[in-house]
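Translate structure to sequence.
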């Protein structure tokens, strides 16, 4: 049965207007990225993984991840940790910050995370994974979801046993990226496992991995019965991919549109992270935006070498003067707000 990518669906009581979810990506999913994802048609956006220990210790940088804009909803904030009580406390903070869903990371394969018992470690420790899920689901009113990989080792089918247990423990939705933790990003996402997971649980399943086009999104939804697809790397510097997937609009953006989106992204990120952090953070985005044959490679290299974001914007405007008016239009739509959490100004972004 084919699903219309523009159909709405629900996780618990949360209405999600389209079948495309913007993936949580550490070092990428800043507020500017999430807002842009919503503007281009993602039905649900997600923060990058936030350390529950950082939240517990009221680390100012970590709390910066809990900044929620009025135009981001529905938004999931993802937390990671290995301690049920600390995860429950972090979930309460996430709910208080205004997130519509609390997502838990049971898939991060990075050793720095797994050695603490968090992330993909939990795929091999189902009892702890269930205790965490139960504690978090019991701590908040908003729905709780889990994002996981297939298992720790190549060929593992651990997610199929763990999934139903997590649902029993209180998860209202599961996202599966069907690679093993060991695989990192090599090989391909085996969505036959996603189909098996869909059959094994009675909550919505989101299929993550290698979805970069409408054709792929439709084939994954059709083959798996998943409720939605998640798009990660395909949307980096390329929000037009989301529009293509959701709406089937295949028109490529003009150079002016690309430059305007990048200028707006730069300005929003500077507001979020401050000039110093934003300047380094943004460098990887230049190639992502300006690639795809949109601008010549030496131009990207030139932007990466510039020392301030003002210089980057000036250079972009010189290359695409028509971008100025478009960037102003984008700016006009940003809600004007200041968020203060736990009496700490949320001005910095970072670690966790
Ligand atoms: C740079 C990067 C950072 C990521 N960070 C996270 C994260 O914080 N939490 C998470 O659950 N998954 C994270 N992921 C995994 C993605 O959410 C997604 O599951 C994976 O990239 C597969 O989807 P894709 O092929 O569409 O990129 C990250 C992936 C990338 C490439």
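Result:
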């Amino acid at each position: 049965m084919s699903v219309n990518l523009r159909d709405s669906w629900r996780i618990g009581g949360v209405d999600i207007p389209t079948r495309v979810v913007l993936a949580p990506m550490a070092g990428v999913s800043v507020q500017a990225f999430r807002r842009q994802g919503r503007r281009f048609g993602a039905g649900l956006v997600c923060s990058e993984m936030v350390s529950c220990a950082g939240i517990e210790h009221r680390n100012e940088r970590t709390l910066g991840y809990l900044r929620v804009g009025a135009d981001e909803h529905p938004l999931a904030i993802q937390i990671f940790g290995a301690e049920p009580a600390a995860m429950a406390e972090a979930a309460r903070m996430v709910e208080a910050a205004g997130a519509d869903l609390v997502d838990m990371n049971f898939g991060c394969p990075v050793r720095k995370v797994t050695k603490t018992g968090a992330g993909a470690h939990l795929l091999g420790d189902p009892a702890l994974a269930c205790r965490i899920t139960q504690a978090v689901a019991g701590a908040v009113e908003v729905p709780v979801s889990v994002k996981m990989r297939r298992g720790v080792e190549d060929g593992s089918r651990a997610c199929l046993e763990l999934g139903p247990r997590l649902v029993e423990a209180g998860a209202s939705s599961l996202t599966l990226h069907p690679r093993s933790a060991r695989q990192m990003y090599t090989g391909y996402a085996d969505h036959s496992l996603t189909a098996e997971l869909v059959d094994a649980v009675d909550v919505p399943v989101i299929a993550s991995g290698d979805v970069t086009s409408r054709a792929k999104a439709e084939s994954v939804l059709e083959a798996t019965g998943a409720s939605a697809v998640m798009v990660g790397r395909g949307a980096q510097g390329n929000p037009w991919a989301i529009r293509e997937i959701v709406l089937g609009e295949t028109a490529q953006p003009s150079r002016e549109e690309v430059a305007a989106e990048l200028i707006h992204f730069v300005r929003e990120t500077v507001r979020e992270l401050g000039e110093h952090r934003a300047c380094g953070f943004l460098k990887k985005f230049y190639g992502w935006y300006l690639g795809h044959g949109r601008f010549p490679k030496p131009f990207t290299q030139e932007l990466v070498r510039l020392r301030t974001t003002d210089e980057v914007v000036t250079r972009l405007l010189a290359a695409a003067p028509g971008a100025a008016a478009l960037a102003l239009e984008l700016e006009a739509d940003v809600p004007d707000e200041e968020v203060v959490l736990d009496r700490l100004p949320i001005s910095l972004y970072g670690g966790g």
